[in-house]
Amino acid sequence: MERLVGKYCKIVTKEPGEDRASVVTGILEDVDYKDGFILVDSKQGLGCLRINTVVAIKPRPNKEIEMEYKRSHTKTQNKKHYKNARYLKNNNKGAVGIGTLIVFIAMILVAAVAASVIITTAETLQQRARTVGSSVIREVSAGLVIEDIAGYTDVNKTTIQYLALLVRPRAGTQDIDMKNSVITVKYNNLSILKLNISLITEAGANNKSVFDTPIIVNGTYSNYTIIDNCTSTEYGAISVLDADGSMLSTQGLNDGDRLYILLNLTALMPEDNGLPVRGTISGKIQPETGAPGVFEFTSPAVYPKRIIDLW
Fold first, then answer.
1. Domains of the chain: total
2. Which structural domain, as residue segments, surrounds residue 34?
């Protein structure tokens, strides 16, 4: 039957139980084997016949009708094609929407990558800023302060042989490691001194004064004083206030502590055997972190006593 589609045919049908057959003439439009029907365009209009009622089907030559069917069918197809093309031309929102969606997704991905980079950079900068800020605060607020300087002259009161500098940490200073703190002294030359750990004791040891404080050896007081064993490269120390004992145990100076630093000027100025009258000396105590304690003074013209207040 597929070969007869579009042709003018004579179709003979007979319903079950009937004796007479019916004849239908027209153009065979379509054959539907699935539902069991055929479509026929006859003079009475478009109709359908059941395939199981078809007894015979025979094409009949009718050129005019077939040509008219072809023309109308072609016209219908062209019209339908034109309509579809026109619809696609006037309704391109789908394609534009997909392109916009692709661009939008690309922008989101780029923004996400940029945001990730910015967040990572901001976190890194924040950490570095916090570290630098803490270091700057510690550098600015930390340090040592010189509260008092006393000198000790020789027997003839002509030169100052020893110096005792009373120092304390600045407000807000963390622990200062005196082992890593150096002292620079300027007179005829520039001297650099470091702490001698064996030359550290507490104040009032053996009821002696600062300049006569003895060295402790194996838990007992020796016959040697701290000040006499200080050299041109090493200084000694006497802990005045040290509630937690950090200076004696770890050489750490913390908030509230007071420390006398002892310098032997006869070792630093051997040519004058110490600081002469009207002599000018300067120096500073530089901790590992923070501001140094700076001192500079000129000795008096006369030394009335052996202990001279110089600060």
1. 2
2. 2-82
Answer yes or no: is pLDDT of 80 > 70.
Answer: no
Q: What is the mean pLDDT of the chain?
A: 83
Core vs surface per residue 97-126: b (16+ CB within 10 A) or e:
eeeeeeeeeeeeeeeeeeeeeeeeeeeeee
Query: pLDDT digit string (tens) for 51-73?
Result: 888 888 888 766 655 565 566 65
- Are the C-beta atoms of 178 and 195 separated by less than 8 Å? yes
Which of 82, 103, 135 terminates a domain? The answer is 82
> For 224-246, what is the HEC assignment?
EEHHHHCCCCEEEEEEEECCCCH
Phi first, then psi: what are they for 238, rounded to 5°? Answer: -125, 120
Query: Where in 76-175 does DSSP place strands (E)?
Result: 144-153, 159-169
Task: Say whether both 253 and 183 belong to one domain.
Answer: yes
Quick check: helix, strand or coil at residue 267? helix
The two tokens of residue 109 are 């991905």
Residue pLDDT, tens place only, 245-301:
888 888 888 888 899 999 999 999 999 899 999 999 999 999 988 889 999 999 999
Cα distances from 211 to residues 159, 202, 255, 265, 299, in angstroms, run 15, 13, 25, 13, 18
Q: What angle do CA 179, 218, 152 make, to 5 degrees?
A: 60
The answer to whether the beta carbons of residues 149 and 164 sit under 8 Å apart is: yes
pLDDT at 78 over 70: no
